[in-house]
Design a protein that fits this description.
The chain is about 30% helix and about 25% strand. The protein is an alpha+beta fold. The strands form four sheets. Strands 2-9-5-7 form a four-stranded antiparallel beta sheet. The chain has a three-stranded mixed beta sheet with strand order 4-3-8. It is globular.
Length: about 180
């Protein structure tokens, strides 16, 4: 049992399939190598997601995006995931968007985002721990398949059961985990 699971033990928590409470969206589409050489817009790279529990807005990269393109912009509260990896256990690594950006920021094409539906209250400060917890990482790894490269199946990913604790419980868990991570 993971530390987060222990914190949720005994708490009245609603569990829902991710696909019922959120929309999945893709990263940049229709981009060539040249678009990344001289960019006018910021985007979150695969490495930024993989290496950080929350998006590092100090280390964004650039891509060329014209005003007539229809690209998804990331928003506060989104959770971003890597779409693949060389081993299943590293597929679907997450990074939560815990900062409001004043400018348009896009998502790398080898990644995908999760945006929670209106009325679903999951604090991004909580989701950064939730989707990196051992029990969720084990479930996410099961959604990946492949031989030399493991890709997350979006259909299986949408079926992941996620806990939706009351907001007060989320805040308590975040306070505990923030303190815990500061000590390590």
């Amino acid at each position: 049992m993971s530390y987060l699971e222990k914190l949720l033990e005994g708490v009245e928590v609603e569990w829902k399939p991710l696909g019922e409470v959120a929309e999945l969206y893709g990263g940049l589409k229709g981009k060539s190598k040249a678009d990344f050489e001289k960019g006018n817009s910021k985007y979150i790279s695969y490495k930024n997601i993989f290496n950080n529990i929350e998006v590092d807005f100090e280390n964004l990269e650039y891509v060329n995006v014209s005003s007539n393109e229809n690209q998804y912009e990331i928003k506060y509260g989104d959770v971003l995931f890597t779409g693949s990896s060389e081993i299943a256990e590293e597929s679907g690594m997450s990074s939560s968007v815990t900062t409001n950006s004043n400018e348009k920021v896009y998502l790398n094409s080898f990644s995908f985002g999760v945006r929670f539906n209106e009325g679903i209250v999951l604090k991004p400060e909580f989701t950064k721990y939730l989707f990196r917890s051992n029990f969720m990482r084990n479930e996410i790894a099961k959604t990946a398949s492949g031989v030399t490269r493991y890709n997350v199946s979006k259909e299986r990913f949408k079926k992941l059961q996620i806990p939706i604790p009351p907001i007060e419980i989320q805040q308590k868990i975040v306070a505990i985990l923030d303190t815990f991570t500061e000590l390590t």
